[in-house]
Amino acid sequence: MSAPIIELEHITKSFGSQMILDDLCLTVHENEFITLLGPSGCGKTTTLRIIGGFEHPDEGRVLFEGKDITELPPNKRNLNTVFQRYALFSHMNIADNIAFGLKVGKKSKAYIDDKIKYALKLVNLEGYEKRRVDSLSGGQQQRIAIARAIVNEPKVLLLDEPLGALDLKLRQDMQYELIRLKNELGITFIYVTHDQEEALTMSDTVVVMNQGYIQQMGTPESIYNEPENAFVADFIGDSNIIPGTMLHDELVQILGVRFPCVDKGFGSNKPVDVVIRPEDVELKEPGTGRLEGEVSHLIFKGLLYEMEVMAGGFEWLVQSTKCFPVGTKVSIDVDPFNIQIMNKPESEDEEAIGVQE
Amino acid sequence: MSRNKQLRNLSLSGPYLFWIIGGTLIPLVMMLWYGLTADDGSFTLANVLAIGEPGHAKALGQALLYSAISTVICFLLAFPLAVILRKSKMGVKGFILFVFILPMWMNFLLRTMAWQVLLEKGGVINGVLTWMGLPRMRLINTPGAIIMGMVYDFLPFMIMPLYNVMSKIENSVIEAAKDLGASDWQVLYKVLLPLSVPGIVSGVTMVFVPALTTFVISNMLGGGKIFLIGNVIEHEFTVGDNWHLGAGLSLVMMVFILISMAFIAKFDKNGEGNLI
Predict the structure, then answer these.
(1) Which domain holds residue B227?
(2) For chain B, which residues score pLDDT lower than 50?
């Protein structure tokens, strides 16, 4: 992996008596698309604001290319922010909005005009120079906000839930736009969102946060396929989280039935949480699987059917392309590779910090 | 629309119609009639053109000058306050606003009289100066005293619209400007100031127009020696007993008020700077 560009060292931050971040350490690498993902109040936005210079950490340091920038105000940092509600200057036209940073930086008129053209082209809004801010749609305003940030050639672009105010279709289009932009610009994106789909779609690295702690950090695939704790499993997509017992390596017992798995090193007869994704639950003819049950709910979701199956005293969430009407007797089976074992947190504090394997 | 509904609408708007007709339209028509006629009832522009006479022109010039100066002073006092209020916490904000608005609840005459007591020859300020062994100063009956009175009486009308418009500016806009490299100073004159224009225009108008037409302040703090256009008009209506001239000069003042309203309409399209 490329060189680190931003390092957060032991960052602590509270507002009043409320602890927002507790001893947070995070390294962001050059040219990385990294996403801070978590529910509201998890500390993701505060982390971004500390990087941007809008909040000062109570303890800890922020390094930019190895240099301490903790004390630098936002206008002295070589990074730019795209705000959630666009935050465009409504008293200026589009060109002046984009030129703001360049004019403050005393660039020549020719350079500025060039840059405005280039930035508008990059966000597919050529010819919008003279338009007023309030004549643009939400999606267009967000593109202008991005253009306004990137003309300053920041090494790092901070994006604070930039797609939060847009409708679904536009949000999906903008996700592709952002990936394209990032590839064309070749700079680092630090992205904050509570939308797990957004995070999985765009990021190189996803950082799942909760209650001021990093729960898990990794590629979208590893976050989705190998959640390290119940919070991550629950937050990233739907999942069945079932208490179970690890009998020994590669064999777990859930709901009184033994399931072979591929996990090792949990010891023997240890209580664990077992995560099984709804699309990984196989429904078979009665008597041919491991656990017998009956379909209790059925919803058609377009791409697939979502069912709830009562089996072994647990309501299993199941997604399948095949339809099993309510009342159908089925038998449940799971491929060993699709069973994910997690340590059980022993206290609430441990649950917040996130139990590591 | 049914007859019943029409009747109901009329009865609902009745009091307002009465108010507008009785309080605005009739006086306006009377003003126009008096202003544009001579004693014998014939049409004339002489009363309006009388503004060109040296005494009247001087009074208008002085009124324009003093009210312009007090408007500028009000703005210089109110703008920083509005910036501070924008950043303050709710409780502090309420308290500061309360302190500045408080005098508004007192009678206008009483407030101005208070300044008379302060500025008089044997008044409070000169008393303090004497006590400190300093020579007495001539404070009252000067242009300075009138401007002081104007600023004191009309400052809240500058603060309110400025505060109103500025508290609506989103914090993220300020942060965006800083993020793009603007210093605090640049944030002020490139973002805060231009975004406050509707409030500034409202505030300037609401201070400038009443200051321009006042006669009470100049009477009480000018000692009857400094004549503003307001005093001239008052004089014609009362002592001079020439309603035609008074109304004619008032029509000239109305032109200034109309110009100010046109300004508000141009800059404050969304009513952001409205006081109420």
Answers:
(1) 55-267
(2) 275-276
Of B173, B181, B195, the CB nearest to A104: B181
Distance in Å, alpha carbon of B51 to nearest chain A alpha carbon: 40
Rounded to 5 degrees, φ, ψ at B172 are -65, -25
Classify residue B187 by burial, with Cβ atoms within 10 Å: 0-12, 13-18, 19+.
Answer: buried
B177 touches chain A (CB under 8 A): yes
- Is A106 near chain B, with CB under 8 Å? no
What's the mean pLDDT in A138-144?
Answer: 91
Given CB atoms, is A159 within the 8 Å cutoff of chain B? Answer: no
Check whether residue A127 and residue A247 sit in a common domain. Answer: no
Q: Looking at residue B226, which CATH number applies to its domain?
A: 1.10.3720.10
pLDDT at A330 over 90: yes
> Would residue A70 count as lying in a domain?
yes
Residue A191 falls inside a structural domain: yes
For chain B, the helix, strand and coil percentages under 3-state DSSP, each to the nearest 5: 75, 0, 20
Contact B232, B55 (CB under 8 A): yes
Contacts of A134 (CB under 8 A, 6+ apart): A90
Residue ranges of alpha helices (H) inside A60-137 are: 94-104, 109-122
Token pair belonging to B196: 């406050």
CA distance A319 to A282: 9
Per-residue pLDDT band for A215 (boundaries 50, 70, 90) equals: very high
* Distance, CA of B164 to CA of B177 (rounded, Å): 21
**Distance (Å, rounded) from C-alpha A212 to C-alpha A191?**
17
Could you tell me the CATH number of the domain that includes residue A268?
2.40.50.140
ipTM value, please give it.
0.81
Number of domains in chain A: 2
**Domain annotation covers residue B9:** no
Angle in degrees, 0-180, between the axes of helices A138-150 and A168-185, rounded to the nearest 10: 20
Dihedral class, residue B61 (left if φ above 0, else alpha if ψ from -120 to 50, else beta): alpha
Binary contact (B175, A83; C-beta < 8 A): yes
Number of helices (H) and strands (E) in chain B: give both, helices first: 15, 0
Task: Look at A75 and B182 and tell me if their CB atoms are within 8 Å.
Answer: yes
Q: Provide the residue range defining the domain that includes A342.
A: 238-353
When CB atoms are compared, the residue of B173, B178, B191 closest to A75 is B178
Rounded Cα distance, B94 and B99, in Å: 9
| Domain-located, residue A46 | yes
A210: part of which helix (H) or strand (E)?
strand A205-210
**Chain B contact for A78 (CB, 8 A cutoff):** no
Q: Which three-class secondary structure state does DSSP give residue A35?
A: strand
Predicted local distance difference test score (pLDDT) of residue B270: 56
